[in-house]
Amino acid sequence: MLLHLGVGYVNTQVSKLAFPDVANFNQQTQLGLTGAITTAFPQMSGLGNFSASGAPIGGMTSNFGANYNQVPSTGEFTSSAALSWVKGSHSLKFGLSGQTRMEGFNQCQGGWGVYTFSGTQAGQPFGAGGVTLATTNGSPGLGYASFLLGLPNSATLTPCTSVNWHDRAIAAYAQDNWKVTRKLTLDIGLRYDLQNPPREDRNRVSSFSPTAPDPSAGNLPGSVLYQGFGPGTCNCGNLLSLYKFGFGPRFGAAYQVDSRTVVRAGWGFFYGAPSTFSGSAPQAPGAGTGYDTITFSSPRSGASALPNGLQGGLPINTALFSATLHQTGALPTTNPITGLSNLNTPLYYDPGLGRPPRINQYNLAVQREIISGLTLEAAYVANRGAWLQGTTSQLNSVTPAILAAHGLSLSNPANLTLLNSQIGSAAVKTASFSLPLANYPPSTTLTNALRPFPQFGTLNPTASNGNSWYDSLQMKLNARLRHNITMLGTYTWAKSLTRISTFDNWTAFDTQKVLDVNSVPQALSTNVIYQTPHLTSGLLGKNKFSNSSGGREGQTKKPLRIFMLDLDLC
Fold first, then answer.
1. Which of 449, 478, 510 represents a domain boundary (last residue)?
2. How many CB atoms lie within 10 A of CB 322?
3. How many domains does the chain have?
4. Does 550 map to a domain?
5. Burial tier of 350 (Cβ tally within 10 Å: 0-12, 13-18, 19+)
6. Which domain holds residue 409?
7. Read out DSSP for 263-289?
């Protein structure tokens, strides 16, 4: 009997800060630019333009200014206990493990002002009545020219923020390797995983609710939902659901048919960690939690996002950072200058993301010694993946049914022109379409106005509805030859399919099965190994060692591998 206990803790802190000359820059005294709430050179983008030949136009980089002011911190505590016990024909194993992880982000990014420039502010002017004048060639306007004019296409200001995520996991398993007879061996096991999905400790996270009315959009369905308890919340401690049925049975068998043939089979469920976030947890609080970003966007094509350009600075009211605190109408926000909706979209945490991905794996193999020293093995190995992270749902897309309800069709050229026209244009008004909201931007296309939730943009949530399929024939030939030479050849014929995103028809989810980008249909691998005999004399054989406890000197008698050749073909 053997008992093993383990415990560990790892903490990592990394500072991501701008260079001191950039971080300590005072915009008001050195540039005359007002409105920033933190020091640092303002972040500006869209200034680089290129000619048809690829040569830069403007004489400066397209993006510059402060980017980082972040102090992320991660911590992980792990513990485990494992017991091995051999009793008669049974080899038993039992184990427990626990894990707690933390991921925190403290940052002051964007408080210096983020400005984006476009060629539209320096482009073709409008004709009488605001009609866009036709151009003879290309798209007029340069982002660098708009910068020189001090006319940004958009500007944002973000307060200092802090989030802290935690998740926990416990697991237990039991396994029995049972030699039933001289020819039959069974492996029977069961594992249980309980994995709490990530949770923001201070409820600084919000999600999308498709049913609750949105006060900021004339009470249209679709609003912001908060983690926590009370009005406007999910009345829960976590927006993600806890999956409590993570049982993973495993079974294996090996049977010796005769002195030269063995048959093996195995099956089991295996769970991964909940793949809630890709790469990292959200590094900033959700909308309506007291840390909103103030956004200024161009009210129409060619107009500046700021009423008086850069010279007038950012007309900031810092009370707007928390003005939507815990309000279901926190999004979409309103441009403080024009009063028009920004059509910005909340994050959507699919509750099913708390369910861990599962692999159903099984195999059947036959091993046969053809002649002495030559063994051939053939196996069918397959698995089926379920609850994989995917982006197959497009909640806010205009479906053929929506178009049909308005008497429109994508096969009609006139309808296509109308769908791409601005909602405020005469053509759209003539077709009896109106603004879905009183403050809806008139420059938005009719297609956007026909969305199921027109107050928002794209809503493509990540959900645990992906699947995968893998099937393979795996063969292995092992030859032990004379003179200490071993040859091994393996061949795999496989096919791997996935369904984790849409590729041609998002309205028919079941048809979106595609070949995995990592699938290798055929792979051949061979290698040759030569080992020397046990050497006890000569240069290689007289490697001596001394025993520090007073023992006598000895000689190494290990084989020396002096040649190996590998060949892989895919």
1. 449
2. 14
3. 2
4. yes
5. buried
6. 400-449
7. EEEEEEEEE-----SSSS--SSPPTTS
